[in-house]
Amino acid sequence: MKFRYAMVCSSNQNRSMEAHSLLKREGFEVSSYGTGAHVKLPGPSLREPNVYDFGTPYKQMYEDLRRKDSELYKRNGILPMLKRNSTVKLAPQRWQDNAADGSFDVVFTFEEKVFDIVVEDLHNRDHVLLKTVLVINLEVKDNHEEAAIGARLTLDLCQEIEVSESWEDSIDDIVANFEKQQRRKLLYSISFY
Description:
Elements: E1 4-9, H1 15-25, E2 29-34, E3 39-41, E4 50-52, H2 58-75, H3 78-88, E5 106-109, H4 112-124, E6 132-138, H5 144-163, H6 167-182, E7 186-192
């Protein structure tokens, strides 16, 4: 693989981790992050989310929710998701706090608000490397079914980018072909490290 990829959603739980897991299995060099202030997982009601700090291990969240209401969190898919996440990496990481992870060639976001945060963060950094980074937003609803579809579409896009001579020269065609085939709009921006 030629490029380093980052998958970014709000809490580094569902959409980014589904894509991270799939790309990792396919041999890509991939990391994942969230952009929120905290990691939020559904709770017993909309007004009662489960809130954790970034860096809290997925296994710890799993045990906490299993103790609170094992049946609820199994039924809504949170426990299986956390189990999967723990096989991919230790804990959710926050995009803004992990600048030291190095530079990526391509960053995927799965929500326009997250795309804006990533682009703004890259824009505000010191551009010492003067290395380009492609940021692509593929809008994906935050549920398990859509996350799985989004991960497969992301894999398709990554494979297209990998086989291109240079994504800088072919990104317009890759995006146009994807949008035509999938009937989904992409946002993208080029930034620098």
